[in-house]
Amino acid sequence: xxxxxxxxxxxxxxxxxxxxxxxxxxxxxxxxxxxxxxxxxxxxxxxxxxxxxxxxxxxxxxxxxxxxxxxxxxxxxxxxxxxxxxxxxxxxxxxxxxxxxxxxxxxxxxxxxxxxxxxxxxxxxxxxxxxxxxxxxxxxxxxx
Length: 144
Fold this sequence. Notes:
Helix content is about 45%, strand content about 15%. The protein is of the alpha/beta class. The chain has one domain: Collagenase (Catalytic Domain).
């Protein structure tokens, strides 16, 4: 990840590049700062090795509900009009599917109650709680 906050020297993100785009996302600068810290945080737990892109969107694209992962390593996250906690939950959920693909070559199947989907849901809840505990200074922003 190109890290403007740390002069491109983030020790947690040195293994790959994350390109983050905001397309009419509705996110303010403080929320973007939280997202940046959250990306570093989840990279420590579920490290990705291939470059990929995250796009925060103002409206749904295609068949997505609140997020999607494409085969070309792009995560699309709906952010406009949502609480940041929900945006972060979607981000880690889709990140986990990318992790499953990169680490285990597990192509996600849209199977309600399936192993991949359940794991992504559980992981999202766990990492959100851990992030909030480690970064209590962001709680006011997360619940906006």
